[in-house]
Amino acid sequence: MAQAPPADKRRLILDAAVRVFARQGFHATRVSDIADEAGVAYGLVYHYFKSKDEVLNELFLERWSLLLVAIEEADRTGAGPREKLGAVAGFIFDSYRHDPDLMKVIIVEVTRAANSFGQTHLEQIRRAYEGIAKIVSDGQESGALRGDVEPMFASMAFYGAVEQLLSGWIFGTIPASETDFDAARDLLVTTICDGLEPR
Amino acid sequence: MAQAPPADKRRLILDAAVRVFARQGFHATRVSDIADEAGVAYGLVYHYFKSKDEVLNELFLERWSLLLVAIEEADRTGAGPREKLGAVAGFIFDSYRHDPDLMKVIIVEVTRAANSFGQTHLEQIRRAYEGIAKIVSDGQESGALRGDVEPMFASMAFYGAVEQLLSGWIFGTIPASETDFDAARDLLVTTICDGLEPR
DNA sequence: CGGCCGATTGACTGGTCAATCAACCAGAGG
DNA sequence: CCTCTGGTTGATTGACCAGTCAATCGGCCG
CA–CA separation, A156 vs B198, rounded Å? Predict the structure, then answer.
């Protein structure tokens, strides 16, 4: 029968996991919660994934690889560092706008959980820092950016600011309801490139 | 006999907990690990603390209250925002220099664990953000800082950068061995206040 | 001495889950 | 109609660990 994709159960489980992880956090989530949310039997989760960890890993890698590509692409445009950094921040903010639950999970459970999952994915995460550092480094060579700041240092500061803002929205420290993400992106780039003091 | 302080067991347990939490992470730490590290019996931990959580809470509050005081004090000096922000970043970096394990635990297990313990202490954490935001806000009124950046926005960006750098040192993403923390503090303040582009 | 009380001990319990696995079912092909 | 295959089921097992508690210790005071 044209019974096309038979409701891809694997995808179903992944999407359900995002929702449950976002709601309860990874540690507080039982595998049965994921199965229930997906409407499948407990054991099926283990048919598609070899452990609960692997579900989270899969979610992270799926999304993080897109970020790495986005950084790569931003870098390839011949634009100035200001535009490149704007593109990177824009991609991350857009990811949150598009799927807040997924970004919450990735940030809270992986990126900022350097002791547990962050450890596993340190290499991937570092790759993003390095991509940003390269943008800074190129900008310094072209003279568009000051040369007295270590690129990796600037990269960490930039990424840290991005992630902290995201966390603020996620946990309501900063009201996200009225947030215009595009404006936030521009403001952040301005802050980092121009500084807080008047020009 | 002049057997002065009877080896305060409570303190002994707290200090041991810092070491074990830093080494294994809070979740992976069993209460017996803490007791073993402290060289006391399992049950004694429960004599002084009503749960494993309370041990971490105590560690966090002890240190965080000092940070809040430091921010408060930095603000009271009549100096410019640049100096005030430098004092705040300096205090945090010094805390790390003085007791890396404790800072690692606080950041990894509380501050960046907004799902678990961060939730409990959100109010305390927010208080720090607000203290920094006040510094920015005052700076804007005096004309030392640009007025087109929401103070809370700037505060989050600043604190995010600080914490990300710390994380970088903690997890070896950035080599901490050769790091001169005072130079890092100055560089960060310069980056945030002057911006990455040449003046 | 003898009794009191808080500090200290560590075996044990209760509950929680991750992961396994043997059974079941549905469609395809013969 | 039968069989084979692989997706699907969910009860069960086994490990783990936070927190409890009854027993012991040791200093102090009358």
Answer: 19
**C-alpha to C-alpha distance for A85 and B92, rounded to whole angstroms:** 27
For residue A119, which of A128, A109, A129 has the smallest C-alpha distance? Answer: A109
SS3 string, A123-171, reads HHHHHHHHHHHHHHHHHHHCCCCCCCCCHHHHHHHHHHHHHHHHHHHHC
Helix (H) or strand (E) holding A188, with range, is helix A181-194
Q: Which residue has the tokens 């209250």?
A: B65
Question: Best interface-test mutation with B: which of A23, A93, A106, A197 has the largest number of B CBs within 10 A?
Answer: A197
CB A199 within 8 A of CB B148: no
- The rounded distance, in Å, linking the Cα atoms of B61 and B105 is 12
Distances (CA, A) of B118 to A29, A109, A167, B25, B125: 18, 13, 11, 15, 8
Chain C nucleotides with an atom closer than 7 Å to a protein C-beta: 7-12, 16-22, 28
Which residue, among A194, A112, A71, A44, has the nearest Cα to B108 in the 3D structure?
A112
pTM reported for the whole predicted model: 0.93
Distance, CA of A60 to CA of A27 (rounded, Å)? 16
Confidence of residue B7 (pLDDT cuts 50, 70, 90): low
Which of B:157-186 have CB within 8 Å of A? 157-165, 167-168, 170-171, 173-174, 184
User: Quick one: pLDDT at residue A1?
Assistant: 33
Torsion of Cα atoms, B94 then B22 then A163 then A151, to 10°: 60
Query: Are the CB atoms for A131 and A150 separated by under 8 Å?
Result: no
pLDDT-flagged residues of chain A (< 70)? 1-7
Closest-CA residue in chain A for B196?
A: A193
**Best of B156, B158, B180 to mutate (most A CBs within 10 Å, chain A):** B156
The 10s digit of each residue's pLDDT in B51-97 is: 999 999 999 999 999 999 999 999 999 899 999 999 999 999 999 99
Instruction: Report the alpha-carbon distance of residue A82 to residue A69 in Å, rounded.
Output: 18
* 8 Å CB contact of A165 and B164: no
